[in-house]
Specification:
With about 80 residues, the protein is an alpha+beta fold. The protein has one helix and three strands. The longest helix is centred in the middle third of the chain and has 18 residues. The radius of gyration is 14 Å and the shape is globular.
Amino acid sequence: MAKKPGTNPKGEFAFFNVVYEDDSQRSNRRVPSELLGGLDGDEPARNFIMEQDREIAEKGGRPALEIKRLERVGAKKK
């Protein structure tokens, strides 16, 4: 059964665009918001996404790519 609109808590996930060493890009990768913030900022997102990539690569039988750049979706450019 479908959920009613507005039943998902807002801000549960932060979204990131990931650029890999071969310049390929994956958009809107979800990271739980509770991992972010504090003194580490967005660095825990990198570790979370790297772990996901390792699992995906293992299932696909190919090596995981290194992350070149990580950008939070909607964040202002410095």
